[in-house]
């Protein structure tokens, strides 16, 4: 049998009352609970619906849904890491890697056009501005979806980490490092500059793909029971 929207809502409320409000946990718990309730009602059609919910919850053992929730949360980070490396490999296994390399070459060309005395400032502020702009663009594209899900979805929240990583670590870190190497006349300067530019660009491109993946994943699972909130 199929549960009604009202029955699904009742199960969801039962789950929320027990503190499971993260979307990923809520969705998986709802899926498991709904399947168990359907099974119980098929066996005994006259069973009280609230009793069916209670029995379904009890079937998960002494800790109820807590064990399931812990397992889901432990798996989220691993799932995100797997997707990250999948996106990363997609660049090195295709011509897409030419995009960040091309941008790095353009950046190095622009640096060569700057007056000698201003190159240090160009390196410091240039990386900072470049990292900031690249971080803002993907967030702006997904702003509406991110505002809807960011506070409730672990996967979507993880996908925004690249923004802060790009701006903080790459944007400022490589800016200061290349400025220092340039002022010292280090032979490693051009290599660090190119590597920094490529990594800064690559991080944002991968983050864009992860944001798109995260939102699509959340919508796909959430829409199974609550299509009206999908975007």
From TrEMBL:
Keyword entries, A-Z: Membrane, Transmembrane, Transmembrane helix
Parts of the chain that traverse the membrane: 88-110, 122-142, 163-182, 188-208
Domain of life: Bacteria
Protein name, entry field: Uncharacterized protein
């Amino acid at each position: 049998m199929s549960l009604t929207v009202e029955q699904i809502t009742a199960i969801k409320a039962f789950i929320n009352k027990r503190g499971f409000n993260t979307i990923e946990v809520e969705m998986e718990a709802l899926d498991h609970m709904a399947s168990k309730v359907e099974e119980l009602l098929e066996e005994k059609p006259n069973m009280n619906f609230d009793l069916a919910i209670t029995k379904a919850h009890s079937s998960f053992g002494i800790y109820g849904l807590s064990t399931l929730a812990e397992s889901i949360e432990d798996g989220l980070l691993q799932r995100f890491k797997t997707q990250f490396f999948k996106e990363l490999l997609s660049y090195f296994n295709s011509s897409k890697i030419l995009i960040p390399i091309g941008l790095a070459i353009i950046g190095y060309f622009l640096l060569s056009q700057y007056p000698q005395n201003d190159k240090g400032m160009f390196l410091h502020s240039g990386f900072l501005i470049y990292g900031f702009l690249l971080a803002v663009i993907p967030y702006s594209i997904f702003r509406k979806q991110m505002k809807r899900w960011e506070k409730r979805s672990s996967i979507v929240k993880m996908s925004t980490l690249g923004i802060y990583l790009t701006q903080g670590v790459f944007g400022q870190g490589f800016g200061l490092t290349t400025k220092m190497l340039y002022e010292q006349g280090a032979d490693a300067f051009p290599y660090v500059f190119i590597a920094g530019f490529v990594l800064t660009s690559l991080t944002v491109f991968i983050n864009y793909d992860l944001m798109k993946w995260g939102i699509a994943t959340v919508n796909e699972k959430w829409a199974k029971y609550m299509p009206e909130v999908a975007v």
